[in-house]
Every structure is written in structure tokens, then in C-alpha cells.
Amino acid sequence: MKVDWLKQAGAESVSLAALPALQAPLQRPAASITAAFTQKLSEALMRTPQCRAFDELIALGFWLRKSNLQAYMQDIDGMAKPLGLVVHYTPANVDTMFMYSWVCSLLAGNSNIVRISTKGSALQSTLLDTLLRILNEPEFSALEQANQFIQFDHQQVSGEALSLCADARILWGGDASVNRIRALPVKPRCRDISFADRHSVCAINGDAVTAADDTTLKRLAEGLWRDINPFLQQACSSPRALVWLGSQADKQRFFCLLAQWQGTQPVLENLRNEQLAFGQWLVATGQASALQQYGRLCIPEMAAGQPLVAPEHPGQWILPVHSLPGLPDLSRLITAKLQTLSYWGLEKETLVKFLAEPSITGVDRAVPVGQALDFSPFWDGYDLIAELTRQVRVH
Question: What one-character DSSP code corresponds to residue 378?
């Protein structure tokens, strides 16, 4: 059977009878067929010319390599079993994000129904065309039966019907979207894994910048731009603010190197206007003391005591800077909304001690600059593969 997107319109419902995943047999966690499929998909994403036009698809293909996923598979307990049917509600702002959580569910042996955003894009079409082409190959027929990708509007009753079938739901979206989906009826033992509104920041030790040479700082600039550039900072783990700790002496020097690293591609006029409108609003309301452009980046210098990331922050390569004397001063600005702290010039042991404090209510992961967008099954404080399996114990 060929896998198609089931696109519904108006008041029509997704026909549950047309979704073989509801009756398909489950796989063992870390099954050999899953390993073969992910490796073949990895190769297609990294080698197909249409896919290579998108950096995000190359990054996804790299993550899907057998050598990478094998490490996750080795950690799966021998008595772990799949939960059953996992229904995924995917985000509209990051086209590839759903793939990472879907692959984790696939590794766990579950059947999956993935609701794809109706907000299409060239990247989304290329990804799904490639994915479905591999999934429809005869050797993967068992996976093809157990995994469907569908589209329907929020208003349709299909959402309730699918929700009631789920043994687990993965919910990507803003707080309002997540709460709307969580209100749908579910089985009593259905597990919800919610990825709601989060933001991330980068912390740079200014004292280490002063001691560094230009080659080292260029590598830092490359890593920071790699974290900021994709998806216009819409990804939850992409830094939406920079915390500059310690010496201010070489801050401008670093920003100039950062501007050089971005290349000469001009910023679209509407994007630049949105940058200026937000930055000037921060200055006019006293939240920022100055505003400067460095290449494609708009960098407001934030006033003392302001939130790390304003709720109104639109992304769009806007990087507010908070200047603080040292790492302990960051603790009062951290909230439960803070997901990823990327860092440079700080010792890992220092960060471990800082983040272990009970008063730190946010930060689920701390990674070196340049690795903010690198996905792992440990995300948003969840161990995804553990959450998507059940443990059997024989005493």
C-alpha cells in the first residue's frame, strides 16, 4: 500500500479506517528494520540534490547516521516495550523538528500518526517526499503500515478521534496550542509529552574573550552564528539573547568578527524593518539603552534587571545583550521558560555547580556554543525514548 498524506478540508474528518497504523503490529525497540530505514533515509537526505539545497535537511541526515543513533539504541533496556500508538502534533515554525521526536518513537518500536502542519513550505515538501519515498520501499513495508503522516485543520473532529486512539501524544507548539490539544479526550493511561513555549540564551565569558586571539574568536563567531541563523531563531533551543559576563573590553571586537562571519547576503527589507521596530521599541520603553546593527544581526544593549527574553521577541536575528558582572548574577534572570544555555569561556564544573542550585528553575541542557540546535533524546527535561516505552519487571 502506498503511503499518502491524507489532506482534509472543511468539516470533513480524517477516516480512521484509512490509517493502518491503528492496526499495525508493533516493533521491538531498536529493531533492525528501524536501523536500516533510518540509515537509508540519512543517506538520501545527505546525498539527494533536492535535499542538499536545505542545510536543515543535511543536518537531519547527519543526525540519522547509524553511528549516532546506535548510541541511543544501546541504552534501551532489554525489557523495554513500546507503548503502542503515538500521535504527534507538530510545530509550524520549524519544519524538521517533528522528525527528531518521531524517530525517537520509531526507535522505541511504536506505531505513529503524525499530524503535519498545514502551513506548507518547500523544505517540508522536499522532506516528506523523500521520507515517504524511502518508507514505501518494499523492505520497509512493516514500518510503512505503522506510520502515517496526515494533515487536518484544528477545527475538525478528527483531532478528538485521533486523540482517543493515542497511547501517548507528543505536543509541539505554543502554550495556547498545547493546552488546546491537552483538552482533547484521551485514554486514562495516555502519556503526554509537551514541548510548549521555551526560549534559550547564550552566555559568553568576556574575560576569556579578552585573552583569546582572533582565530579563536572567529571559531566562536562561527559557532554562535550556526546556533542563531537557522529558522530565524524560531527553534526553542536557538539563542534569543546573549549574556555577556565579566570584562566588556572586547565586546565590540567580537561583534565585528561576528558580523564578518555572516557573509554579505543582504537582509530583506521587511525583516530589517521588523528588527528595527522591535529594537526601537525596547529603547523607547527603557528596556534597552542602545541599539546597533552588526551584519544581519540587530543587537540591543539591555538595561539592568530586564527579562532575559521579552515575550514579544519575534526572532528575526535579533540578539539582545545582557551585560552582567559574573555567572552568579545570571541566576536571578533565569525562569522556568529557559530551555538551553549555550556557553563559551566557562568551565563545565563551574556550570554544573551553578545549575545544581535549587533556585535555578530553568535550563534543561547546557551545551558549548555551536551545539544549541544539536538534538538528542534528552530534550526539554525528558528522556524521550524512556517516556515512549514501558518497562516490564520480573521478580
Answer: E
